[in-house]
Structures are given as structure tokens and as C-alpha cells.
Fold these 3 entries.
Entry 1:
Amino acid sequence: MKLAIGCDEAAYALKVEIMKHLDSKGIEYHDFGAEKGEVVLYPDVAVKVAEAVARGEYERGILVCGTGIGMAITANKVPGIRAAVCHDPFSTERSRKSNNAQIMCMGERVIGVELAKYLVDIWLECEFAGGGSAPKVDRIMEYEEMYLNKERQNTKKGGHRKWDGKEVKEQRDFDILNKMKKLPGGLVIIPLVIAVLLATFVPQVFQIGGYVTALFYEGNACMMGFFLIVCGSTINIKQVGMPLYKGVALTGIKFLLGVAFGLIVGKICGPAGFLGITPFVMIAAITNSNGSLYISLSSQFGNATDTGAISILSLNDGPFFTLVALGATGLASIPFKSLIATLIPILIGFIWGNLDAGFRKACATAQPIVTFFMTISIGAKTDVKTILTAGAAGIILGLISAATSVIFFFVFNLLLPKKERNAMGAAIGTTALNSAMTPAAVAEADPSMAQYTDMATAQCATASIITLFLCPFIVAFFDKMMRKRQLGIYSPEGWAYQGQKVN
């Protein structure tokens, strides 16, 4: 764990003692000041620490001043930050377990050195419990986002702000990216529709040569490589315990069921499949899940361990598992070097992301942009005629993929302790929005599959849209059922309650 720590002149002595304590425990930290004898305005130090934590450069922060109150008030002004004054063991513990506070604040004029060190130990050892507290923390962040959006709206309307007593006219901001995110699957659906329409009515636009053709018509492989680096960076090696277990279980179930479906279709119907749905398309649609939708559903129907599982579940983004399945089952001839070539970008992202929190955060920021332009390169080779031809088969594929939610729900919960069970198993019954890129990757590895690429791309795109809209309703149904029957985390014995309800 890496900490950010800061103080004003009123709490310099306490900060020094806390840093000595951290040194004795081998905990890494960075001192943001103040220095000995330096007189500062504590809000300046608080903002520096809070911004560093919010950026992901440090996992948590410690701020000390005379009372701790001013530091807490200031730190909480930084979006994404939850800071709490911690002056007793119970409040300190609950600030982490119930409120998921990333910054603890203490006052040198309120508590002694030994108590401060004791509270630091408690705070560092506690993790967010999630459960019944998760919706409350989510609501806190929703309110924060609501007020930020109001501010953005004022800015978009050309509103005026006062800064240092002067009125400043703000530049209009259309906020296009966030508007696309509000539409389920918008970052894939919108560019895909645009690209398909252009490819249908003005196909020459993608083939004018130069950078345009290289990027949008011939850029699938390059875009996919970059996308896999981004995906690899999200896999956090520090995720242990239940998040790790859930991630492995979800990924394993998803992979095995996809392989089973593909094998059944291949053995019964041969390489051509049934209704135009080939075995490798079946595997691609079922083995890959919509990570963005999973995260969204976990915030509503799951807990912290479910959200943490995305670090492992992210492995099924992209073509790797599809290539492994096709090679293992003999449904396609996948050279070993193709698997390695697919794995290397993931490993680059994984290693770099775990060595550099800033890189992981940058990749998280870049992911929507990469997804947007990568989808354009997919749609550039697909026209309306192909999609209409694939329509029925794509819809059937989507319904089959959505139906697997039921299987995932029951199997996943069988693998969990009773107190951990919830509706999140059903949340992986989706076809990944980026699965539309998998057929092209399969064709790159095995040219004999190229004849199916265009149709398979359209089918996967259609299936992803179908599951995108159906899966939330399926998860909500199981969640309602479990709540009504007080099963899993909704039971009095569920870990979220720990024998008593807490805020």
C-alpha cells in the first residue's frame, strides 16, 4: 500500500510520529508537506493529497491539522474523495467498512500520539465491507455527480462564474462522450451505426488512402492490440480473497459454457453451424461478457467483492479465450504463436498497470476512446445488407446468450458461501460489445475462417445489443427473488450485516 500524507504547521509533530510509525511497518508513503517551520494554508495541502488519491497515484491518504476538521472539509471538496475525521476506534473502523473513506483526518490538539498510531493501524487494516453499505456510498457519489452535472450544464449554456471577484464567461461544452455513455452500449452502438451507414452509402470514404484508410479500414489488428493493453492494465494483482475467487469462478464458468455450446453446435451441425450461426461465433458470443454492463449492475445488485471481480473477468475481453477454445476443440486451426501474440499485449498492460497506478488510471480514461474508434474500424467493413442478412441469426444468438444468464446464476451461487450469494451470476449472461472484433481476429489466426468473418461480425454485434437490453431485467428479477426470500447477502446472516445494521 502506498499512502499520501500531509499536515499544516499545527500538526507537524504528529505527522512526523505517524511517518516514523509507517516506516517501522514498512509502509510506503509520500510527504506532501508542510515542512518543519513552514507556515501553510491547510486547504492547499489537503487538496494536493486529495487530488493525488483521486487520480489513483496513492491508494489512501492521511491528513492532520489542529482538529482534523478543516482538512476533512477541504479534502471532501475534491470529486471522488471521501474523507473522515477519525478520533476513536469505532468511527475509524466504520469510516472504512461502511463509508469506504480513502482519507483519514486527525487533529494533533485533540488526540495523543499513541492513540493516533493505534487508529492508523485500525484504518489501514480495514477494507470496505460493501453489502448494505454499498448502495449508500453509491448514493453519495450519485449526489456528487448530480451537482457536478448541474455545474457542467451551466457551463454548456454559456454560464458565468465568479473567480477572484471577477465574472468569467465559460466556454460551451457539448459533453458528447458522456452523453454517449448514458445510452446503454452507446460507445459501441453509435460509432457502429455511423460506420455501417457510411460503409453502405459512401463506402469510398474509408478507402481514400493515407491515414484514414490505415486507421479506419485496415486498423482492426492495431486497434485490437492497443485495446488488449488497456484491458490488461485493469487486472489488479492486489485483488485477493473473495474478489479473486469470484473473478476466477465467473471467468471459468463463462469459458466452459461457451466451449460446451460451440462443441455441441460443431458436432451436430458441422463448421457451418445452424441458422448460419457457426461454432466459433457461438463460442465468441458466450465466452465474452460485457464488462461495462457488469460493473454497472454490480453497483446496483452486488457488493464490493463483485465489483472487484472485474479485474479477473476483464481477461475475457477480446479474442484470447475464443482462440484458446477453438484451438483446444479443433474447430479451427489456431497456431500457438497466435495465442502468444494475443496474450503479449494483455501482459504488457497487466505488468505496467500493476507497477504504475498512473498508467492504469490513464488506460481507464483512454478505454472509451479506444472502444469508440475501434468500433468504427469494425463497422467500416460491414454494410446494412450484411446486418439485415444476419438479423434473424444475430437475434437468436443474442437470445441464447441471454438465456445463459439463468445457468450462470445458479452455477455461480452453488460455488459461493451462502452468505455471499446474490444475483450477480446472471450479470455475465451477455455478449461483449467488443466481441464483434473477435471474428476478424480468428480469421487472422486461421485464414480458412475468413469466409465467415463479415456475417459473424454482424451476428456478434446484434447479439451484444440484444443481451445489453435483456440482461439487466434478468438480474433484477433474480435480485427481487432473493430479497423476497432473504437469501444470500439479503439474509440476516449475510456478511453485509455482521450481526447488526450499520450506516
Note: The two ends are 26 Å apart (CA to CA).
Entry 2:
Amino acid sequence: MKKKMIALSLVAVLCLTACAAVFVGCDNEQPRAYVSLDINPSVSLVLAADGTVESAVAENDDARVLLVDVSLEGKTLQEAARIVAEASVECGFLSEDNSVVDVTVVAEDGSVEYEGSLLGELQQAFTAAVGEDSFDVTFNSEGSYTLNRMLEYYKEKYPNNADVQAMTPAKLDIVLSVTQKDGSISFESAAALDISSLITMAETTYAQIEPYMNAVYEAAVAEAELVYENAKAVAASAVWAAKYTEFMLDDVTVDWDDVMGGDFSDIIGGAETLLTENYGLQYAVYDSLAITLDYLLDKCVQLQGYANAALEKVDTARLAELLGVDEAELKAAIADESGNITLEAIDAYVDRLVKNAAADVKEQYESSDLKAYLNGLQASAEEQVEKLPEAYADAIYAAADALEYTGVKIGEFFTDLSELTIEDMRGAVTKLEAKRDAAMAEIEANLTDEQMAEIEAALADMNESIASAEAKLAEVKAEAKAAAESALKQLKEELVSEHKVTVTVQ
């Protein structure tokens, strides 16, 4: 009878579990933890202090197939891991030909004992799910081939960044998970955070993402959200601008005798005040532009991240040569129906090839030529995405024109609109939000309680007027969700039927 191969012996697992029991104490409180399972599919989890899954996210489309009809939140790590393992076997992702699971386990306090106990739980869950009479499963906690390659890549890219130079594969894993979903933080900024802060960011980010939220869903919803948010922002901004102008005009006094005598200083002064001190108008413009740019930033980072952006050029013959595989086989594995090839697809293929290769073959994948070629693809993909804002130049110019109309110089926020980058947009959003908040502070300082109450009433009326826009957004989201879930469920059914594997619960 073939026995399950596991990275740790049963004795070691029991010892680590015992150590963890001593470590966590009598109150059963434990440090929060980040756990990722990469079979391909790839799933990331955040564990709460009680050891249950606080939030979970599908890192790729294969994982979305697995999680489309299940929920991992609230389950123990063993329960969640077993669900992932069973579904992976049923869909053919975890098999004799792909039997290595890349695992990352990071406790927020760095406890080696607790991390070891979690690894033991994962191994026990997979062993129970697959069954001892089936194929061997091996766990790798040293990071996937791609994760380690990328670590080298980033250390070469940021030679003077101490945080990046000190980074481990485990920290890189969670940094990438966060930055590829949250456009508000850059790689370098995330690298500077400690594990506890990164886990908090992951928990917050994951909570906003459902398994059905694939590229198709995002594309369908994105435009509808922009229409709604802009409609709401424009309506609200109009209220602030109009009411504040009204209150300012109430304070403008004109000596008409002076005017009749040719002295227009009161009128000129009042006009200048309306232009330079109309904080309602300033708030409106800053808010509207910030919303537009934030939307475009999210679209660039989340919908077209470098990992799943179609590469402009891939020399498949050279890549096949470096990997020692047939080019036709390679193309079939990494190209979609339209012939597009993404870095994510290449990395997934390479990881599967490397982790399942015989020990005497793996050395060839450490060649500097292969890593240099893959690093070049990554650099190219990142450059493609960094230039994405150029595609939205018209929308940005339109928003910028509105800002210029108020007398505010666009140079405060952008250095060069013709070569706009994601980092420029991220910085501009931050500055605009600060300006918006400063304008609001002036509004609140200058208006009476009665005037603020009048504005609040006007905003309430405005909310009723855009109810139809809100309803339309909800309708689009519901339709997109239903379509995405249906497609994912159908694919899951097809995979299960194709592999005809039934997992027996032990």
C-alpha cells in the first residue's frame, strides 16, 4: 500500500502541534496568520486570532472555479484546506502529475512554532482529502520557483531599498497578493510594512473580493460604477458649489452710489472672492477629479495588472528551448483562445513544470539564461502596465480642464500628462483628496450650523434624485454576478465530469 509522502513526519507534526499548544496558552488566542496554497489553483487565507479563516481570496481563475460555490470564511484551517484539496482533486488540478503544493505560512509575530503547527494542519487536511491509497502529495514551504525568481528580480530592481533587500519569499508572497489587488499602495510602500500591517491590508482587501469577481465581471461593472460615482459626485458637488456660492453672495455688499460714480471696486472684489475663496466650487472640482482618477487607477492596477496583461511579444521558441520542452506543447499550455499570452500563464506553467520535475532535472531550471529571459518578460509586462494611463489620456485631460477652469494649476498634480504613469496617478489622487479635504475644512469653518443643515437637506434631496442611477448600478452588478457565477460553475462541472474523480471523506 502506497503511503502518503509528507514534508514533516507525523512525529514532527505532533511535536510542533504540542509546542504550539504551549505557545498559545490557555486562552486559545493565537497570532493572526497569512496562508497561501498554490497547486495551481492558488488560494490565499487570513487566519483570525481564534485560528479560523477570517477572509479568503482566489488568486487566479483556476481558484475562482474552486471557490465559486463554497465559502471558506469561519472554517478552521484544516476544514478550509480540505475543501480546497477535495475540489482540486475533483477538478483534476491536484493529481499524480501535479502533486506538489507550494505553501506559504506567515504568523504576524514570526512564531516558528505556530507556523509549523499550521503547516502540519495543512498536510493532515490534504492527506485526508486525497486518501492514503492515492498518489503522493509533497509540500514545499520554501516558495515556488516563480516566487524565488521574482525575489531575485526585485532585489536587482531595488538595490538601494533596504526593505526589499531584507525581504523573504514569504513576505514577498503577501506583498504581491496585496499590491496586485489594491492600487492605492505601491510595491515599495508595501515592502516597508511589517507582517502585521500586511495581514491587516490583506484581510481588508480580501473582504471586498468575491470568487465570481473575475476579469469578465470587473469589466462589466467598472463602467457602470464610474457612471454612478460620477453622477453622484457631480450632483453632490453641484449642491456644495451652488449653496456655498449662495451663502457667499449673501455676504457681498455693493455701494451702488459708488458704482454709479464709476467705482467698481466692490463688484470686482466680490467677483475675485467668489473665484478664489469659493471653497464649495473647489471641493466639487477636487472631488470629481479624484473620483475619476481613482477609478482609472483601479482599472489600470486591478483589471490589467502586469501578471495578466497580454504580453506584446513572447519568443516561444526561445522559451521552449530554455525549458527543454516542445514549443507546440508550450503554446498550447500558455496561450488563450485568442493566442494571447500572459506572464501569469507562463509563470503557472513553469512552476508546474519545475515543482513536478525529477530532482536530477531541476538543476536546468536554475540557469541564468532562463531566469534572465523570464525577468525580461516581467520587466516588459510591468512597463506595459505602467504606460496604461496613456489609454485614458482623454478622460484625464477632460478632468484636468475642469480643474484649470477654477484657476487651479494642473502642474500641482501632474508633471507631464503626455507621459502619465500609474505612480503619477497615485500621487495625484493623494494630493487631490488632501485639497478636497482642506476645502471641506474651510467650508465647515466658514458656514453656520444653520447653513450646514441647509446643505445637508439639499444633499438628501439629491440622493433621491439619483436613485435611478443607483438602481441601474445594482442591476448591472446582479447581472454580471449571475453571468460570472454561471460560467465558473459550468467550467467546474465540466472539469469534474472530465476527470470523473469522487473524493471519499475519511
Note: Strands lie at 33-38, 42-47, 53-58, 100-107, 138-140.
Entry 3:
Amino acid sequence: MSEICIIVTIVVYLVAMLLVGFAYSKTNNDSTDFYLGGRKMGPLVTAMSAEASDMSSWLLMGMPGLAYLTGIASPGWTAIGLAVGTWLNWLIVARRIRRYSANLDAITVPQFLSLRFHDQRNLLNALGAVIIIVFFVPYTASGFAACGKLFHSLFGVDYMIAMLVSALVIVGYTILGGFRAVTTTDLIQSVVMSLALIAVLSYGIVVAGGWDAVVSNAQSLSGYLTMAASHDAVTGGAASYSLLDIVSTMAWGLGYFGMPHILLRFMAIEDEKKLVLSRRIATVWVVIAMAASIVIGMVGLGMTKAGALEFLSGSSSETLIVRIASLISQHGVLAAILAGLILAGILAATMSTADSQMLAAASSVSQNILQEFGHLKLTEKQSLFVARLTIVCVSVVGVVLARDPDSSVFGIVSFAWAGFGGAFGAVVLCALFWKRCNWQGALAGMLSGGLMVFVWKYLISPLGGVFGIYELLPAFLTSLAVIVVVSLVTPAPSAEIVAEFEAAKK
């Protein structure tokens, strides 16, 4: 009976998402509507859509799993970095990029960079679009993997089948409704995610024997409840968490400045004055959600100590919330419906990110590569068709990449996050705030930052020691240094470009 209630709840949720997509399907008259919702998004939708699309499946799967196995240090410093990054991004980037992109009539991040620097060759458009596709595909794959793990661990459904069904739903409402559907579903999904966190946390504490029992268990574990050490759940030992480790994990916050799907939210708000309210809503929600996620990992370990859960090792730790939801479902019909809502929350976390990524990838191919770089003359109808076809193609490749059920959601997300932060982070900041920056510097910075992510991850990081730092930090710093050097040794921007820069400051 409990399984039926869970399945019905999840099905109702999925159907509701598709209905939202269908409802907005007739509002997309042109590409600006499809990609940016006609720049008519309100402050609440903008804030929650940005953060829901940011807090992907790692919020409800990756982060609790990491806290469960290693203690609070690694996820804690990551959360601090992300919270600071969120606040700074809303504070210094949001208003400027909304005004600047509107002045230039740019509807994608690569297009904004191309118009900002008067890149006649559209090299920034093309390179930016390629980078978005390269890193969004694994990001999307991580979302599909999370959905597959969810249904497989709960119902024993074949991993591939579960993943494919989830992918079809996400693709469905994204293709139908475009940006308005994505942002509206993101708002709904952020509410569902919040309810899921509250329900799991409350139930877990009770089952673990109360908050005192949870804390007592955490204190008894070496290096678990400190920000200066990392716990090893397998051996029971601890390793010191160095300053280098802290800097490395906090570097996650730098990624925000280069996230195309988040920057698009800033560009889409109806009135830049409403960004203050959006910033407050977004920052508060992010801090609370991440704190709750980390505590769930700690509570889950307390439940294991109490005998309510078996020990979850390796990537299975990422199914912690799924296991807790399964326990909740055993307490009657209402509890089973609640469990279904919790699991829908995991789906929400996944979908809210995957849909945004596919939309950004679609705009990159249709708008940036084909029309601007390739100089193809597409009608609005043809442009929307290409965008939708791209979404399908990205999802297919994402499914192929996510076919391994043992893949780590957190690991995949961290690499993609580094890719965007490294390639776009410094470029966007320089484009918005450094008048002397030119297209040569932006192009060189984008290319060097994106390449450094791969070089550091696969060639330098394996060396260990000081080189084991998160690849986002060296990639971001490399990109920034290259932008400055190349911009200063090449001709200064024209008077027209400088005038546009000054106009965006007013």
C-alpha cells in the first residue's frame, strides 16, 4: 500500500510539471520569450528559480551523503563558499548584467559577451556556446543519474528505465514551455525541496533518539564534528582539514560568477530594482537549505547508530534521503504520501537544474552557433525548432553518460561547476566591471580557464599534495591573469564600447 501511495504522489507531481509546460507552450512567440520569458520575471520567481536551478540533486543526495561519510568540514566549507558566492553574485553581478544585457538586447551569456566587446567574428559566441554544451552535458547527466538511483534504490526498478522516464518528463515540459515553464516549475520545485528537507530532518531526529543522541554520536566520532578535520567512516579515523583544503572547498563560491543558467535569471527579471528583494530571498533560502542538508547527513549517521539504517558506504551514501523516505512510508497512508513528496523533492532538485541547463544549451546552439557564428538566417519558428532539437540531443548524450549507476552525483557536478566557473567566471566579472578589457582578452581568458579545468583535474591534481586543490580555483585565477595580460598588450576598446560600458553603470 505504501509503495502505491508513493508512486501515485510522484506521478501526480510529474504530471503537474508537464501541465505547467503545456500551459506555457502557447506563450512562446519568439526566442526572447523561449529563452528569457520576455524579461518579465517577478522577484520571487527569479530568486527561487535561480537557487532551485543551482541547488541540483547534490543538495538532497550529494551533500547529505558527503556529510554522512566525512563529517561537517568538507560540506560545511563548501556551503560557506557557496553562500558567500550566492550573496556576492546577487549583490554585484545581477543588477549590472540585467541592465547591460538589456541595453545590448542580449538573450544569452555568449551573445552578451559578443555584443559587449563588439566581436565581429562572433568567436566569443561560438566558444562560449561550445563550453556551455561541453560542461552542461555531464551536469545534465548527473541529474538523470540521481533520478535513476532514486527509483532503483526505492522500488528496485531498473536503473536505466527509471532514468529514461525521468529524462522524458524533464525534456517534455522544457520543450513545451521554455523559460516561463522552467522558472515556474523551479518555484514549485523549491517549495517541494524545502518540505522534503523539513520532513526528513524532523523524522530522522526522532528515529535517531532525539537531537542530543544525534550530537552525542557525532561527538564520539573522530574528526566528525569539527571544521578542522575530516572523518573516515570506514576506518573510524580522522584526517586534518588543512588551510589548502578550506580554500579549495570555499572556491566553489567562485563558480557562481560563471553559471550561464543562473546569469540568465538575472537577465530575465522584469525590473532591476526588484533584485534587492530577490537577493534576500535567495540568500536566506540557500543558507537554510544547505545547513539542513548537512545536518541530515549527521542525523542519518545517528539513525545508523540507532539501528534504523544499515551503514551506507561509497556512492550509496547519496541515497540516504531515499532510505529515510522509505522508513517514513511504513507509518500509514499519510506518511506514505509524505514520503512520496520527499522523493518528489529529489526529483525537483534534479529537474530544476537539468531543465535550466538544457535550455541554456539550446540557446547556445540555435542562437550563438548557428545564427550568429554560422550566419544562418532562421525564422523564429525555425530557431525554436532547433532549440528544441538541441534539448533532445543534449538529453540523449546525458543519458549515455549517466548509464553507470555507480557514478557519483557530487563528483560529476563538481567538475561541471569548475568548468563554468573557470571558463566564464573571470570573463563575466571583467566584462561587467573592467573598462579596459577587450575581446581578445575575453576570448583568451575563456579558452585558458576552460582548458585549465581539464589540465588540472587530469594531469596536475593526481600529483597530490598542494596540487590536489579543487580545479576551479587555478582555472579561475589562470583565466583572470590571461584576461588582464592579453587585454593590456592588445589595442584598447573603441570609444563606442567604452560609452556602452559607462551607460550600463548609470
Note: The chain has 19 helices and two strands.
